[in-house]
Amino acid sequence: MKSSIRKLLIAVTLCITLSLVSCMDTTDVTQDTSDNDTDAGAPHVLADKSEDYIDSFIFFGESTTYHMKSREVLSGGKSTKQIWAPKSGTVNLDTTTSSIKIVFPETGEEMTIGKALKKALPTRIMLTFGLNGATHKIKKGEEYFRTCYLSLINKIRESSPSTKIYLQSCFPISKSMDMSAYTVDAHTLNSYIDTINKWTARLAADEGLYYVDSAPCLKDGDGFLMNEYDSGDGYHLTVKAYEKILEYIRLNRPTEDA
Question: What's the pTM?
Fold first, then answer.
């Protein structure tokens, strides 16, 4: 009898001990996760590793945007419907950009971006500008840059009010880029791009838009485009570079757009 009681007490004690250990482990894991997710000053982002989020975007910008087709990094590969561009494949952000004609991917028809927006009503649109005409934009100043960008932004708002607008930072150039067509060196042009990116971030904040600062992911220690991301001409990007950019977009999805 005493032996049975002693065995029962041991079993009860073991159960209580295991329960306490289990609670302690759960509390510790919860605390660690909380600490990691609440860093002071961290942006409110939601890591989204699904393809659905990227698939919801229309991408519109310079030739570095258009080349996402030939690099086959979006759904549909070279036949993707997510890239909007004119026949030339590139866009210079200026006061006329809001009225530019693009080749509408769904039909192959040329139409203004406003008309395309009304037809497609995209969930999200990613705009990426900065390299084309960078020297001219720096000379004209921030207000000119904002006027050009706002003209396009307001066209999107007017044509497709529910579309969520993202502004992405412009990508850096490499140290080896041929600068013969420029009046500045590669280091100075990158500094211009950095300034334009600051203007873009400020505009996004002022207008309540989403800003995607993917450019630093592609930079080396000196602020140039890394060699592994350079397709060969100093500014167009490799498949690996686009994969890095898309990964950054996925992992930094704003919680407000979840």
Answer: 0.81
